[in-house]
């Protein structure tokens, strides 16, 4: 949608533009006003807009007019008089008389508002006080009977010029009031409309700008993911060679090394490994972000995965003198998942737990079945009044895995942020713990890719618990 300029300017509102009488006044109110004047003084009143449109009228016609209109020539003379009155300008004084062929007359008065002519007021026909007899212009019309014409002419409302002037002045004063309040209402409503239009236009502009920014960000995000994926992939191949060759060197395939050479080669190998795991993490993250991570989902059991994680990380824990234990669990339901990816999830979590737990601390991995609402299905309420209801309720059972450590803990305000890529609670250059801050962001995306959730809790008295909930495989 394109932005539209408001179609009424402030100048319009101040009557410089297309404002007309019809816009400003309520027609019913005007009609009412004209009718009450007509019944007070017996003289018809009509109001025309500046453009000549009839805005208000008093119903009813003089008997003489009805009679004249029964003859062809009379009808012709009448319509040409009416047309002349309708189109006649009120002149420089804003007030003129227009004679009718019947001897009657019309008074044409300019209606002004704020110094501008907005229409005309026509009072008549009435019989000026000085007219006593029917004129020849009436009597000469073929088919008009002199006597009848004279009788009907005498029935025409008779008025002195001053009286008509006074009537017109009263009417004008009342009209001024109506115009004033009408204009006020008109300006208010137009201003309201203008401000609504302006707000709408601004809103549209802002929405368009936001949409543009959003599209640009999305495109940048896509480019970043592509870039990460390509670079990571290209880095991996030479790195595999570096690791492979340094390993061969270390094992003496190219001749015996001195102790110092061996030390250097081991460093190359170790750093190469570290770099490779960083690249693999980047690759995983970019695939997860772009939605191109392939997961081989199947029905699986979690116990062997957890056991493997513990045996893989046991040496690391031992080196740090952290006790790593797998708590015995009851029978766990089968899951629908990718064992390789879930292994990655728990490896990351247990690795973190060991990393952030000082010597002599404990890391415990445990798993249990829980209900959707977080309770264990075994604490069921057999014999309770509502046990029947519980049977009917759709229970979705989850497998909850908890990785609890007695380490440094994570402050509550940091908890939502540790899942952001590259976020580390301690990001200083002197930080004690290694890593890049990618582990948890991958973990969260993988868990959510399995339809599960992850959250952080306190471990008493110190430490952290990462609780991962995964839905049980559908039967
Ligand atoms: N068990 C834990 N105890 C205390 N802090 C933790 C724990 N696990 C994660 N954190 C905090 O969350 C941050 C992010 O963790 P994440 O696994 O994403 O990154 P990392 O371990 O620093 O690096 P990477 O996993 O990429 O090697 C960590 O730097 C640490 O500050
Ligand atoms: Mg980590």
Helix/strand layout:
Blueprint: H1 10-13, H2 21-24, H3 27-41, E1 45-49, E2 54-57, H4 63-68, H5 72-87, E3 95-99, E4 105-113, E5 116-128, H6 136-139, H7 146-155, E6 158-159, H8 161-250, H9 259-290, E7 298-300, H10 303-320, E8 323-326, E9 335-337, H11 339-355, E10 362-370, H12 387-392, E11 398-405, H13 439-449, E12 453-458, E13 464-471
Parallel strand pairs: 5-6, 8-10
Antiparallel strand pairs: 1-2, 1-5, 3-4, 4-5, 7-9, 10-11, 11-13, 12-13
The structure holds adenosine-5'-triphosphate and magnesium ion.
Adenosine-5'-triphosphate binds at residues 281, 352-353, 356, 405, 407-408, 410, 418, 423-426, 435-441, 464.
Hey, roughly how much beta strand do the residues contain? 15-25%
CATH topology of the largest domain: Beta-Lactamase
Biggest sheet overview: 6 strands, mixed
> Rounded to an integer, what's the Rg over CA atoms?
48 Å
- What is the share of helical residues? 40-55%
Low-confidence stretches: 1-6, 380-388
> What is the number of helices?
13
- Number of DSSP E strands: 13
Instruction: Sum up the overall morphology in one term.
Output: rod-shaped
Ligand catalogue: adenosine-5'-triphosphate, magnesium ion
CATH class descriptor of the largest domain: Alpha Beta
Q: Helix/strand-derived class?
A: alpha+beta
Overall average residue pLDDT: 87
Secondary-structure element order, N to C? HHHEEHHEEEHHEHHEHEEHEHEHEE
State the domain count: 3
CATH architecture designation of the largest domain: 2-Layer Sandwich
């Amino acid at each position: 949608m394109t932005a539209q300029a408001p179609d009424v300017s402030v100048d319009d509102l101040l009557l410089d533009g297309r404002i007309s009488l019809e816009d400003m006044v309520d027609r019913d109110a005007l009609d009412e006003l004209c009718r009450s004047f007509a019944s007070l003084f017996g003289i018809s009143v009509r109001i025309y807009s500046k453009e000549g449109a009839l805005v208000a009228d008093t119903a009813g016609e003089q008997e003489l007019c009805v009679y004249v209109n029964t003859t062809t020539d009379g009808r012709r003379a009448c319509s040409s008089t009416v047309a002349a009155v309708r189109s006649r300008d009120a002149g420089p004084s804003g007030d003129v008389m227009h004679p009718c062929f019947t001897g009657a007359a019309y008074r044409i008065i300019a209606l002004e508002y704020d110094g501008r002519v907005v229409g005309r007021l026509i009072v008549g026909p009435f019989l000026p006080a000085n007219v006593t007899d029917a004129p020849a212009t009436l009597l000469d019309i073929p088919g008009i009977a002199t006597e009848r014409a004279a009788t009907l002419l005498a029935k025409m409302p008779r008025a002195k010029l001053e009286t008509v002037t006074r009537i017109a002045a009263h009417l004008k004063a009342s009209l001024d009031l109506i115009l004033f309040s009408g204009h006020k209402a008109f300006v208010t409503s137009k201003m309201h409309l203008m401000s609504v239009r302006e707000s709408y236009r601004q809103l549209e502009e802002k929405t368009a700008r936001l949409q543009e920014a959003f599209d640009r960000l999305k495109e940048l995000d896509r480019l970043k993911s592509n870039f990460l994926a390509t670079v990571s992939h290209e880095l991996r191949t030479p790195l595999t060679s570096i690791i492979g060759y340094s390993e061969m060197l270390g094992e003496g395939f190219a001749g015996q090394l001195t102790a110092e050479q061996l030390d250097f080669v081991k460093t190359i190998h170790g750093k190469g490994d570290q770099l490779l795991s960083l690249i693999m993490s980047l690759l995983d993250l970019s695939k997860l972000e772009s939605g191109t991570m392939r997961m081989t989902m199947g029905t699986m059991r979690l116990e062997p995965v957890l056991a493997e994680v513990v045996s893989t990380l046991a040496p690391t824990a031992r080196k740090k003198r952290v006790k790593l234990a797998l708590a015995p669990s009851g029978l766990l339901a089968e899951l629908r998942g990718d064992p390789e990816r879930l292994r990655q999830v728990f490896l990351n979590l247990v690795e973190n737990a060991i990393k952030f737990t000082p010597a002599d601390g404990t890391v415990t991995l445990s798993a249990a079945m829980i209900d959707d609402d977080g309770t264990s299905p075994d604490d069921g309420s057999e014999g309770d009044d509502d046990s029947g209801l519980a049977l009917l309720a759709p229970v979705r059972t989850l497998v909850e895995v908890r990785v609890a450590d007695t380490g440094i803990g994570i402050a509550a305000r940091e908890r939502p942020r540790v899942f952001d890529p590259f976020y580390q609670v301690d990001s200083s250059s002197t930080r004690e713990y290694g890593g890049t801050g990618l582990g948890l962001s991958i973990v969260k995306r993988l868990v959510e890719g399995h339809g599960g959730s992850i959250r952080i809790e306190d471990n008493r008295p110190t430490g952290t618990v990462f609780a991962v909930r995964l839905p049980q495989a559908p039967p």
